[in-house]
Amino acid sequence: MAKKKKMKNVKHVPLSWYNESSKVQFPAGMAFWNTETGIYNIKLDIFSRMKIRLIPTDSKDDQIHYKVQIQKRGKDRQLKYLSIGEGVSSKDTKKLIFMKLAPFENTLILGRIV
Asked: Which end of the chain has less neighbouring CB within 10 Å, N or C?
Protein backbone atom coordinates (compact mmCIF):
# COMPACT_ATOMS: atom_id res chain seq x y z
CA MET A 1 0.00 0.00 0.00
CA ALA A 2 1.40 3.38 -1.00
CA LYS A 3 1.95 5.96 1.71
CA LYS A 4 0.61 9.45 1.30
CA LYS A 5 3.30 12.07 0.85
CA LYS A 6 3.28 14.63 3.58
CA MET A 7 3.47 18.11 2.10
CA LYS A 8 6.03 19.97 4.20
CA ASN A 9 5.57 23.35 2.56
CA VAL A 10 1.77 23.58 3.00
CA LYS A 11 0.00 25.15 5.99
CA HIS A 12 -3.71 24.68 6.72
CA VAL A 13 -5.76 27.78 7.51
CA PRO A 14 -9.49 27.73 8.37
CA LEU A 15 -11.98 29.79 6.37
CA SER A 16 -15.14 31.43 7.67
CA TRP A 17 -18.05 33.40 6.26
CA TYR A 18 -18.63 36.66 8.12
CA ASN A 19 -21.85 38.66 8.07
CA GLU A 20 -20.90 42.27 8.74
CA SER A 21 -24.38 43.41 9.80
CA SER A 22 -25.00 40.64 12.37
CA LYS A 23 -21.29 40.14 13.28
CA VAL A 24 -21.78 36.36 13.03
CA GLN A 25 -19.31 33.99 11.43
CA PHE A 26 -19.83 30.48 10.07
CA PRO A 27 -17.34 27.77 9.06
CA ALA A 28 -16.65 27.91 5.31
CA GLY A 29 -13.90 25.39 4.58
CA MET A 30 -10.11 25.27 4.51
CA ALA A 31 -7.27 27.03 2.73
CA PHE A 32 -3.92 25.44 2.00
CA TRP A 33 -1.03 27.90 1.88
CA ASN A 34 2.02 26.94 -0.14
CA THR A 35 4.86 28.60 1.76
CA GLU A 36 7.14 28.48 -1.31
CA THR A 37 4.79 30.17 -3.81
CA GLY A 38 2.66 32.26 -1.44
CA ILE A 39 -0.51 31.01 -3.18
CA TYR A 40 -3.51 29.71 -1.21
CA ASN A 41 -5.63 26.88 -2.63
CA ILE A 42 -9.13 27.22 -1.23
CA LYS A 43 -11.68 24.48 -0.61
CA LEU A 44 -15.09 25.93 0.23
CA ASP A 45 -17.59 23.54 1.79
CA ILE A 46 -20.31 24.63 -0.64
CA PHE A 47 -18.08 24.19 -3.71
CA SER A 48 -15.86 21.29 -2.71
CA ARG A 49 -15.02 20.30 -6.31
CA MET A 50 -14.24 23.80 -7.54
CA LYS A 51 -10.58 24.79 -7.63
CA ILE A 52 -10.20 28.26 -6.15
CA ARG A 53 -6.95 30.07 -5.49
CA LEU A 54 -5.94 33.26 -3.71
CA ILE A 55 -2.92 35.03 -5.16
CA PRO A 56 -1.12 38.08 -3.74
CA THR A 57 -1.00 40.79 -6.41
CA ASP A 58 0.65 43.79 -4.78
CA SER A 59 1.39 45.53 -1.52
CA LYS A 60 1.30 49.17 -0.55
CA ASP A 61 2.29 50.49 2.85
CA ASP A 62 1.00 47.83 5.24
CA GLN A 63 -1.72 46.39 2.94
CA ILE A 64 -1.48 43.28 0.77
CA HIS A 65 -3.98 42.91 -2.07
CA TYR A 66 -5.09 39.57 -3.50
CA LYS A 67 -7.11 38.27 -6.41
CA VAL A 68 -9.44 35.26 -6.11
CA GLN A 69 -9.63 33.00 -9.14
CA ILE A 70 -11.40 29.80 -10.14
CA GLN A 71 -9.90 27.24 -12.47
CA LYS A 72 -11.97 26.40 -15.55
CA ARG A 73 -11.39 24.44 -18.72
CA GLY A 74 -12.09 26.31 -21.94
CA LYS A 75 -13.72 24.86 -25.03
CA ASP A 76 -10.24 23.98 -26.24
CA ARG A 77 -9.73 22.01 -22.97
CA GLN A 78 -6.95 24.33 -21.79
CA LEU A 79 -6.91 25.53 -18.19
CA LYS A 80 -8.02 29.10 -17.64
CA TYR A 81 -8.34 31.17 -14.50
CA LEU A 82 -11.26 33.54 -14.04
CA SER A 83 -11.25 36.28 -11.40
CA ILE A 84 -14.26 36.07 -9.06
CA GLY A 85 -13.22 38.43 -6.29
CA GLU A 86 -10.54 40.25 -4.39
CA GLY A 87 -9.05 40.31 -0.93
CA VAL A 88 -7.00 42.49 1.39
CA SER A 89 -4.98 42.03 4.56
CA SER A 90 -3.15 44.54 6.71
CA LYS A 91 -1.99 45.30 10.21
CA ASP A 92 -5.52 46.61 10.90
CA THR A 93 -7.08 43.26 9.93
CA LYS A 94 -4.65 41.47 12.28
CA LYS A 95 -3.20 39.63 9.27
CA LEU A 96 -6.56 38.04 8.44
CA ILE A 97 -7.44 38.14 4.75
CA PHE A 98 -10.89 39.58 4.01
CA MET A 99 -12.32 38.56 0.62
CA LYS A 100 -15.35 39.66 -1.37
CA LEU A 101 -16.51 37.01 -3.81
CA ALA A 102 -19.17 37.43 -6.47
CA PRO A 103 -22.12 36.92 -5.93
CA PHE A 104 -21.94 36.40 -2.15
CA GLU A 105 -23.08 39.06 0.31
CA ASN A 106 -21.02 37.75 3.23
CA THR A 107 -17.28 38.28 3.49
CA LEU A 108 -14.99 35.25 3.30
CA ILE A 109 -12.21 35.43 5.89
CA LEU A 110 -9.02 33.43 5.82
CA GLY A 111 -8.59 32.71 9.53
CA ARG A 112 -11.00 33.18 12.42
CA ILE A 113 -12.05 36.35 14.22
CA VAL A 114 -11.70 35.78 17.93
From this structure: N
